[in-house]
Specification:
The strands form 7 sheets. Strands 17, 18, 21, 22, 24, 25 and 28 form a 7-stranded mixed sheet that branches. Strands 4-1-8-7 form a 4-stranded antiparallel sheet. β24, α9 and β25 form a beta-alpha-beta unit. The protein is built from 12 helices and 28 strands. The chain has about 575 residues and is an alpha+beta fold.
Length: about 575
């Protein structure tokens, strides 16, 4: 059984979302002489560091068809913060040998990211097969669906009455520990309440727990609840001797199930707390108190994928630091130096984050801004100038367009200062403010090398933006100390301004140097950076949606069969 002391819900890792991919093909090449092709689809996944393609799995072979709908699915772990490159190869198979390379004809292939599939309308992608020059290879259709046994969240509150007294000078400091039973008879810890001090009649705070964590979708599975008296340092409660016993004092236990709990407050949910040792020793033993369920309710737990499938778009904006502290861009010592053989830190950070975000934006048009530079022709300092030099339309076409705008700006502006964040934060906030229906969520990436000059104004801008559908990623490049940046990241202490606290944590700061691969592998460095800085975006989006009670829109119906004559319009 899991140790109580080892269980920390704040440190517990959440399993990756499982995504099921369904594959269909249309109008494949016919390579068989006396019949049609016998297609199979093979999925390859590219390694993050090595770039090596490895076979992940394959569909079944469907004989004599050019329009197969495969039954066998691909189930993948989905990580929003990673760029997961996939390759689908289609073959016509002549034999059932596992060595497909000896018994097949190549029919074409597509390259796609898992994020691109999920980010498309209805999580459905249709791509032309390529790989055979001069031939029309047909189409591959991919549909993604999130797998989950149970998506509900249970909220409950319990109290106890007349628990055993365990402390010598006081009463007891009781808490509850919930365990889910396993098929082999063992139990897995799944929740621990807070401690209520010095009482035999505690009332614990309401808490929420995923139903799948409580019973894994089996409503009649046993849930065991242990009642303990908390001890600060293992001091024996019945004497003055120090006994270094790491366990808390066991008061008793009871069992229930999700089905019983779901009945709510009733006579069925008043439980006797029993201590087996006491019951075995004392003939007149009745119980060690009772625990009563005060309330129980269940709500649907929407996920990040639900909102994306329902059409929520991520609007990505980048803001780049053009202050003089970066050094002369023409010199190799500059952080903005354009080395013909490798990207600088600014370009690497932009490409790493942008290539993942762009899969969730349908139009692939990204506002790209610079700050801290003197602009031609009058040399006026600007803290929100468009990288493409078009004030009326700062959008760049895709991440490659943003990179091109960045390189062009380095050639035409003069690096100056100071390092002001508030103008670009406020500009994105103005775009986010009118969007209150959950249809869009805004992500601002700020890449900088130095200390913020307008910290007071930046804090105020962040506090104001915390009520909007918006997140801010700050990547620090170069060797500078970024202590002040840590203050903006609200993981430990919620940021405040003029006595107002941010409604939620919307800032993620990381120094790029922490992710640089020692061997010089830029691809690996970028993958590590993207994984860390994007990891909080799904939870930040969910926190906004939940506080506004914004539910995901229904996903558009998916295309499922070759017999259907019409395609659903993308939205």
């Amino acid at each position: 059984m899991a140790s109580i002391g080892d269980f920390d819900p704040l440190q517990a890792t959440v399993p990756a979302t499982k995504i099921e991919i369904t594959v269909s093909c249309r109008n494949l090449l016919d390579v068989d002489t006396f019949s049609k092709s016998d297609p199979v689809v093979v999925l390859y996944i590219q390694g993050i560091g090595s770039k090596e393609w490895r076979e992940y799995g394959r569909t079944e072979v469907i004989e004599n068809t050019l329009n197969p709908d495969f039954v066998r699915k691909f189930v993948l772990d989905y990580f929003f913060e990673e760029k997961q490159n996939l390759r689908f190869d289609v073959y016509s198979v002549d034999s059932r040998s596992t060595n497909i390379s000896k018994h097949k004809d190549f029919l074409g292939q597509i390259f796609v990211t898992l994020g691109e599939i999920i980010g498309s309308a209805g999580s459905r992608v249709e791509k032309l097969l390529t790989g055979l020059p001069g031939k029309k290879c047909g189409t591959l259709i991919l549909s993604a669906e999130e797998l989950s046994n149970c998506r509900d969240i249970a909220t409950m509150q319990l109290c106890a009455n007349k628990l055993d007294k365990k402390d010598f000078f006081g009463k007891s400091d009781p808490f509850l520990v919930f365990y889910r039973s396993n098929e082999d008879g063992t139990f897995t810890i799944c929740h621990k309440t807070e401690v209520v001090k010095n009482t035999l009649n505690p009332v614990w705070q309401p808490f929420t727990i995923p139903v799948r964590a409580l019973c894994n979708g089996d409503y009649d599975r046993t849930v065991k609840v242990d009642v303990y008296d908390w001890d600060r340092d293992g001091r024996c409660c019945l004497c003055f001797l120090l006994i270094f016993d790491t366990s808390h004092d066991f008061i008793g236990e009871f069992t229930t199930s999700y089905r019983e709990l779901s009945r709510g407050q009733s006579q069925f949910n008043v439980y006797e707390v029993l201590n087996p040792k006491k019951r075995g020793k004392k003939k007149k033993y009745v119980n060690s108190g009772t625990v009563t369920l005060l309330s129980f309710k269940v709500e649907s737990d929407f996920t990040f994928v639900d909102y994306i499938k329902g059409g929520t778009q991520l609007n990505f904006t980048v803001a780049i630091d053009f202050t003089a502290s970066n050094g002369n861009p023409s010199q190799p010592t500059s952080l903005h130096y354009m080395n013909p053989y490798q990207m600088n830190a600014y370009a690497m950070a932009l490409k790493a984050v942008g290539e993942i975000i762009q899969d969730y934006d349908s139009d692939k048009l990204f506002p790209a801004l610079g700050f801290g530079a003197k602009l031609p022709p009058d040399g006026k300092v600007s803290h929100e100038f468009p990288l493409n030099a078009d004030p009326d339309n700062p959008n760049c076409n895709g991440i490659d367009g943003v990179l091109e705008g960045y390189y062009q700006s380095l050639r035409r502006v003069q690096l100056y200062g100071p390092t002001n964040f508030a103008p670009v934060i406020n500009q994105v906030a103005r775009c986010a403010a009118p969007v209150t229906d959950g249809s869009q969520y805004f992500v601002l990436l700020i890449i900088t090398d130095g200390v913020i000059s307008d910290m007071v104004q930046t804090k105020e801008a962040i506090v104001n933006a915390s009520v909007l559908p918006m997140s801010i990623i700050i990547v620090g490049v170069g060797p500078a100390e970024f202590d002040a940046m840590e203050e903006l990241d609200g993981d430990e202490v919620r940021i405040s301004s003029r006595g107002r606290y941010a409604e939620r944590d919307i800032v993620q700061f990381v120094p790029f140097r922490d992710y640089v691969d020692r061997s010089g592998n830029q691809v690996l460095s970028m993958a590590r950076l993207a994984k860390d800085v994007l990891a909080e975006i799904p939870d930040q989006l969910l926190s906004y949606m939940k506080t506004r009670d914004l539910k995901p829109r229904p996903a558009p119906p998916s295309y499922t069969s070759a017999s259907q004559q019409s395609f659903h319009t993308r939205i």
